[in-house]
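User: Can you model how flavin-adenine dinucleotide sits in this protein?
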Amino acid sequence: MSQQTPSLSFEVFPPNPAVGNEKILQALESMQTLAPHFISVTASNNKYNIKETTVALADHIQNDLAIPTIAHLPAIYLTKEKVAETIVALDEVGVKRILALRGDMIPDVEPQKDFRYATDLIAFIKDQAPHFEIVGACYPEGHPDSPNQILDIQHLKKKVDAGCSSLVTQLFFDNERFYDFQDKCTLAGIDVPIHAGIMPILNRNQALRLLKTCENIHLPRKFKAILDKYEHDPESLRAAGLAYAVDQIVDLVTQDVAGIHLYTMNNAEVAHQVHQATKPLFKHQ
Ligand code: FAD
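Assistant: Here's the modeled complex, given as structure tokens:
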């Protein structure tokens, strides 16, 4: 386990281009005051132009707000030419960290043939731009496509060996599952820092979406009770969801997690509330 001070970082997503950037720019300005260790910017798998959305927002965070930035890059629907173009665009604006992803398969949409797994993308980036730092995604409760966790961790080991310097997890609500995963990674020889992805649940719609899309994620009794009891009481659900996330973070930091990556859902108020409640634990902040 790491004995170093943990990092606190945020994830944001570029809004639908039709909606515009006004809200996200305000949120980022507010998040800047919290001096996060880094902010990562998600990328559309197959819907929006990555240069106009992810690269543009990453450029703003890195250069206008002076916050270290990681650009996500899902590649299953991209050709090598498109990925090379995106790397050049990121390099030009000084964003030299990529969260290299396969991306989810979209039903009835034929993938490109160049990047079957994230590992293929990592090898490509290492070849094209060896000065880039590469981060990978990982799944404490197993990736949904994987027949079992052992195989998933074997694939993760290959991914790290291809050139990841750190990992960020999918969200989880049961810290014990994370610790178990961390131990298995250590046994498999995976020795890069693993940042824990934490998402505060703040409203019913978000909870319903989550339950639908994250079937493989264990919901502890304590967490389910919050969803059940406050289903029709938005104020209490928000307060309890936030407290649950803070409780998870306190436990993780106390047990020497490398970092907390907060899924902010572009909500600066949540970032502030989590930061306020946990600030002394991230002493360098
Ligand atoms: P991979 O590492 O390629 O793994 C995918 C599956 O293939 C796993 O089951 C793995 O075990 C298996 N596998 C890997 N290598 C091999 C091999 N050699 N042989 C056989 N099987 C193999 N999606 C987006 O579209 N945009 C985003 O911005 C985004 N950000 C994310 C951020 C984080 C922190 C996380 C955890 C996920 C994110 N995702 C995003 C979702 C991600 O794209 C999906 O979960 C996707 O299904 C898997 O991507 P991956 O890079 O983890 O895939």
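A couple of observations from the model: Residues 7-281 form a domain with the TIM Barrel fold (CATH 3.20.20.220). Residues 42-43, 45, 72, 74, 99, 101-104, 117-119, 137, 143, 145-146, 152, 155, 158-159, 168, 170, 197 surround flavin-adenine dinucleotide (CB under 6 Å).
User: Helpful, thanks.
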